[in-house]
Amino acid sequence: AQSVSQHNHHVILSEAASLELGCNYSYGGTVNLFWYVQYPGQHLQLLLKYFSGDPLVKGIKGFEAEFIKSKFSFNLRKPSVQWSDTAEYFCAVNPTRTGNQFYFGTGTSLTVIP
Amino acid sequence: DVKVTQSSRYLVKRTGEKVFLECVQDMDHENMFWYRQDPGLGLRLIYFSYDVKMKEKGDIPEGYSVSREKKERFSLILESASTNQTSMYLCASSLHGASTGELFFGEGSRLTVL
Fold this sequence. Notes:
The structure holds 2 protein chains of 2 kinds.
Chain A: E1 4-5, E2 10-14, E3 19-21, E4 24-25, E5 31-38, E6 45-50, E7 56-58, E8 64-68, E9 73-78, E10 87-95, E11 103-104, E12 108-113
Parallel strand pairs in A: 2-12
Antiparallel strand pairs in A: 1-4, 3-9, 5-6, 5-10, 7-8, 8-9, 10-11, 10-12
Chain B: E1 4-6, E2 10-13, E3 19-21, E4 23-25, E5 31-38, E6 42-49, E7 56-57, E8 65-70, E9 73-78, E10 87-94, E11 104-105, E12 109-113
Parallel strand pairs in B: 2-12
Antiparallel strand pairs in B: 1-4, 3-9, 5-6, 5-10, 6-7, 8-9, 10-11, 10-12
């Protein structure tokens, strides 16, 4: 079955550590890619998105993600995490042939220790 | 800013009751979606709608129905609530078109079925 895989379910880091969260998908064809973040008690909000062009995209709060087409991956990175980055992170894929359908990974819970 | 408003943040219902979850968006978006979010399972699409009076089944429509009588409003209905429908329900909206971008989410409705 086609899917979106987030391999890290729970990640615990100390402040200032570097972060990389993996996301792989199995949908063929052209895709739009997204990372969403859900801070404790808040609604899901967009962190960054990729539609086309430069495969390295920058988002809010110092996050970036790299689209590697050959690996069907869209990993999220941040060089130095802060306590305020504690949240749940979701990767989402929109295969353009499906129109407006979005498929989400199971999420990664990040805890940053001060 | 796009605002997606879900009428109830927390609900407690009994098995067999009929449940209505309401969602309103204020940005004239064509597309509206209902997801449920469960720990370890991520977001799963229940139903979506591309237009007024139009609906499409998502990945887990069983036990649910929807109504879209007006463009800005998308309702999720549980005809006879069951304990396995205890979950967080998320409404989202987006502009129509394959590459128009992201989903905008409401704050969620946490439903407990006893």
